[in-house]
Amino acid sequence: MSVTVNQMNRFLIFKLPSAYLCGVRLKELDDSKTIVTVTHRWINQNPFNSMYFAVQSMAAELTTGALVIKKIKESGKQISMLVTNHNGTFTKKAVGKIIFTCADGHLLDEALSRTIETGEGQTILMKSVGINEKGEQVSAYEFEWSVKLKSKK
Fold first, then answer.
1. Cα separation of 22 and 138, whole Å?
2. I need a labelling partner for 62 at 20 to 30 A (CA). Which of 26, 37, 84, 116 fits?
3. Contacts with 104 (C-beta within 8 Å, 6 or more apart), sequence order
4. Domains along the chain?
5. What pLDDT does residue 96 have?
């Protein structure tokens, strides 16, 4: 069974309610990329009248995490996933609708294949970029994911 956009948005409601309440929504999910949107509103603003950095982080992380969840589910293997590091860079005030995109599905394919073949954990550095309605970059994130076959007990 594949992971769908609707399933992931329902997942947000129950497992990541703060992201859902702040307006983070998955819009596209395929084998190579993920797109997530979030619109600047009262509930997700900072004191400087732009989007709070943590809301941008949630949206960016979802672009990478949704891909990881999808690919693990499709592998049919019991694989654990964990963010081990992340970094964010902010280049412009985030106002209006922000679209975050991650196009690193190919990197994830390689890492999951290696962990399944070798049984050793792998790390993947995945990038997510936030663009405003004018096409300007407002932020860029890198998330380091660790994937590892679960041990049989």
1. 18
2. 116
3. 33, 64, 67, 124, 126, 127
4. 5-149 (3.10.129.10)
5. 98
Under 8 Å CB-to-CB from 75, ≥6 apart: which residues?
112, 116
What percent of the residues of the chain are helix, what percent strand, and what percent coil, each to the nearest 5?
35, 35, 30
- Average pLDDT for 68-86: 96
Q: Contact 72/81 with Cβ under 8 angstroms?
A: yes
88 and 141 in contact (C-beta within 8 Å)?
yes
Pick from 110, 112, 105, 109: which is nearest to 126 by CA? 105
Say yes or no to pLDDT of 1 above 60.
no
Report how far residue 3's alpha carbon sits from residue 1's, in angstroms, rounded to the nearest whole number.
7
Helix (H) / strand (E) element for 9: namely helix 5-15
134 C-beta neighbours (distance < 10 Å), count: 8
The residue type at 150: K
Mean per-residue pLDDT, 59-63: 98
Q: Which residues of 57-77 are buried (b: 16+ CB within 10 A; e: fewer)?
A: bbbbbbbbbbbbbbbbeebee
Name the 3-class secondary structure at 85.
strand
The stretch 128-147 carries a mean pLDDT of: 98
Answer left, alpha or beta for residue 17, where phi above 0 means left and psi between -120 and 50 means alpha.
alpha
